[in-house]
From TrEMBL:
<dbReference type="InterPro" id="IPR036188">
    <property type="entry name" value="FAD/NAD-bd_sf"/>
</dbReference>
<keyword id="KW-0560">Oxidoreductase</keyword>
<dbReference type="GO" id="GO:0071949">
    <property type="term" value="F:FAD binding"/>
</dbReference>
<comment type="similarity">
    <text>Belongs to the paxM FAD-dependent monooxygenase family.</text>
</comment>
<protein>
    <recommendedName>
        <fullName>FAD-binding domain-containing protein</fullName>
    </recommendedName>
</protein>
<dbReference type="InterPro" id="IPR002938">
    <property type="entry name" value="FAD-bd"/>
</dbReference>
<feature type="domain" description="FAD-binding">
    <location>
        <begin position="7"/>
        <end position="344"/>
    </location>
</feature>
<dbReference type="GO" id="GO:0004497">
    <property type="term" value="F:monooxygenase activity"/>
</dbReference>
<keyword id="KW-0285">Flavoprotein</keyword>
<dbReference type="InterPro" id="IPR050562">
    <property type="entry name" value="FAD_mOase_fung"/>
</dbReference>
<dbReference type="Pfam" id="PF01494">
    <property type="entry name" value="FAD_binding_3"/>
</dbReference>
<keyword id="KW-0274">FAD</keyword>
Length: 445
């Protein structure tokens, strides 16, 4: 770890929090990580799709080969309607390989967090603490302290909130802003910044019947859409059901809601041989959750800054949520590395400037990504006749698919990369990655 006095407290030990730990470790910046669950790496949660923008980061920090060993490459997406009729294939993942030189991959949350955790040195593991739920955060002119419900507290220079859509760090940030006499209304985030239009039942089950590792399938129709990604041992489906009315209230669901969901949609096809009911009956894990959407207006306050789902929440339809959280970390740690390399004890104005620059670099891309994910979900659930027409007659065109991927390619290729690490393992495709100038590490470890 670093000899600098600059210390980061990461709240949240999921994929984005562990990405922050790895980026800070490579930058030579001290950190401590706090996770509310009993262990840092747990076998829970749905699978994740890691897109080229996320894979680039893994390649930069030397984890691509390790990651590939625990994940499956994705190819064509086969699509069906609610009656099992073929809607044609979508080749978005195929075009990723052609354009960027690497295929998107599906991985379990457990496997990804294990890879990220194992990549850290023993000295970093000693600074990672489970069973640490945030109670309050306090700040002084020179520090920030996270107070946990078990009575412990941790003091550092800044706090990174990587604790998800229902972020306690974001709530504390708002509370501090409300308490400050100099706060203007536009500096205070909404108490409930995200809108829920859909809810999702996700099911993990053994890969079986006609499924093969790397398969991607979707079922589209009025009111409900399904995405399936098959791994070596288990497959995961995410079912997206449109609510009768959107809400900003936090929704909670129990076993009765889950059973009713299955009763309503259990007959829908997942493949030629499998239905939702088949997957549910053989489930390893399952959960019914809200799908919040939106972008928080202010990503920082004084010594607190947000990344990932704490700052923005996408529907999972495009697989972009976790990937954008990883890229948030890249953009933020680049700014922190500049600050720490130039000042041993940076002033609050300097830190605020770094936070502002980070949000400015990411905000437009995140808003666009959030809107794109929302439109994808609306299209797959046939929100109205226009979305249904687009799904059946526009997206189904291979020419349109190729055009859309090539239109997006320059922005993907220009995704921020760590500025203090060489690009390393990342292969090249038709559209070269925009290289960042490699800067000195923040401090000497």
């Amino acid at each position: 770890m670093s000899t600098s006095n600059f210390k980061v407290i990461i709240v949240g030990g999921g994929p984005v929090g562990l990405t922050a730990a790895n980026a800070l470790s490579h930058a030579g910046i001290n950190f401590v990580l706090l996770e509310s669950r009993p262990n840092i790496v747990i076998d829970a949660g749905s699978n994740l799709v890691i897109l080229p923008m996320g894979l680039r980061l893994l390649g930069q920090i030397g984890l691509l080969d390790t990651f590939n060993a625990v994940s499956s490459a994705l190819g064509q997406i086969q699509r069906f309607d609610h009656n099992g009729r073929d809607l044609g294939e979508v080749n978005f993942f195929v075009h990723h390989k052609e354009i960027h030189g690497i295929a998107s991959r599906v991985v379990s949350r457990h496997a990804l967090t294990q890879v990220l955790y194992d990549a850290l040195p023993a000295s970093a593991h000693a600074e990672m603490h489970a069973n640490k739920k945030v109670r309050t955060i306090t700040t002084t002119p020179s520090s920030a302290t996270v107070h946990c419900t078990d009575g412990t507290s941790y003091t550092g220079t800044i706090v990174i909130g990587a604790d998800g859509a229902h972020s306690l760090v974001r709530a504390q940030m708002r509370a501090l802003a409300l308490q400050s006499p100099s706060t203007s209304l536009d500096q205070i985030n909404e108490d409930h910044p995200f809108l829920t239009t859909y809810r999702s039942l996700w099911i993990r089950f053994p890969t079986q019947a006609d499924l093969q590792p790397g398969d991607a399938k979707e079922t589209h129709g009025v009111g409900c859409a399904i995405q399936l990604f098959a791994g070596e041992e288990t497959s995961v489906i995410g079912m997206y059901e449109r609510l009768d009315e959107p809400t900003k209230d936090r929704l909670r669901f129990g076993p009765a809601d889950e059973e009713a969901f299955i009763k309503r949609w259990g007959n829908l096809p997942l493949s030629r041989q499998l239905t939702v009911q088949d997957a549910y009956d053989s489930r390893v894990q399952a959960g019914l959750v809200s799908l919040e959407e939106g972008v928080v207006r202010n990503w920082s306050w004084e010594r607190i800054v947000l990344v990932g789902d704490a700052a923005h929440k996408f529907t999972p339809s495009t697989g972009a949520g976790c990937n954008n959280g990883m890229v948030d970390v890249v953009a933020l740690v680049n700014e922190l590395s500049r600050v720490v390399s130039s000042q041993e004890a940076p002033e609050m104005d300097t830190i605020a400037g770094a936070f502002k620059a980070y949000q400015e670099k990411r905000f437009a891309a995140v808003v666009s990504g959030c809107e794109g994910a929302s439109k994808a979900t609306a299209t797959a659930t046939w929100k109205n006749k226009v979305f249904k027409f687009v799904d059946l007659h526009v997206i189904s065109s291979h020419r349109v698919q190729k055009y859309l991927m090539h239109q997006a390619a320059p922005k993907v290729a220009a995704t921020p990369a760590l500025e203090f690490v060489e690009d390393g393992q990342m292969p090249e495709g038709k559209v070269p990655w925009v290289q960042s100038a490699v800067l000195p590490r923040a401090v000497k470890a």
